[in-house]
Specification:
Elements lengths: L1 E9 L4 H13 L4 E6 L2 E4 L10 E10 L3 H14 L14 E7 L4 E3 L2 E3 L8 H10 L4 E2 L3 E2 H6 L6 E4 L1
Antiparallel strand pairs: 1-4, 1-5, 2-4, 3-4, 3-10, 6-7, 8-9
Length: about 160
């Protein structure tokens, strides 16, 4: 079993419910168990500003799935939640990103790990820092250092 980190985001159709259901679905994936999940965090949209704020979280799973098999499962869960890919960074019912897969660096046409935007997104780094302090992101550095570099981005932990 390998440790993988999944970023979750939603800003449509009851985002909190979308994220909580997605966590249950991650735990139900073949050869996979949910190890832990962060609190929920609220942030402004990255793309067009004429959409609702996002709720985000990060989950750590333990999986026997290969990276591409895991990606396929994540996309299947997104589709089951009504995810439609119409607009880059547009509103969505559910977004699941494979952030890290063990200590691997993956450069394939369908998948890049660490996730290409991980070092610039406080809405990913703060929840990641919460559940995995001291984590080293391959080729980028420690999660706390990356998070500190995004201190100007407004992200609010939901209690």
């Amino acid at each position: 079993m390998i440790s993988a980190f999944i970023g979750l985001g939603s800003n449509l159709h009851h985002p909190e419910r979308q994220l909580l259901r997605a966590l249950e679905e991650l735990d139900a994936l073949p050869e996979t168990r949910l190890h832990c999940a962060s609190s929920l965090y609220e942030s402004a949209p990255m793309g067009p500003q004429d959409q609702p704020d996002y709720l985000n979280a990060v989950a750590e799973i333990r999986t026997g799935l290969t990276p591409l098999a895991l990606l396929d499962e994540l996309q299947r869960i997104e589709e089951a939640h009504g995810r439609i890919r119409e607009q880059r960074w547009g509103p969505r019912t559910l977004d699941l990103d494979l952030l890290l897969y063990g200590k691997q660096v993956i450069r394939e046409p369908r998948l890049r790990v660490p996730h290409p935007g991980i070092a610039r997104r406080a809405f990913v780094l703060r929840p990641l820092e919460e559940i995995a302090p001291g984590l080293l992101v391959p080729e980028l550095g420690e999660v706390e250092e990356l998070s500190a570099a995004c201190a100007d981005q407004q992200v609010r932990r939901i209690e």
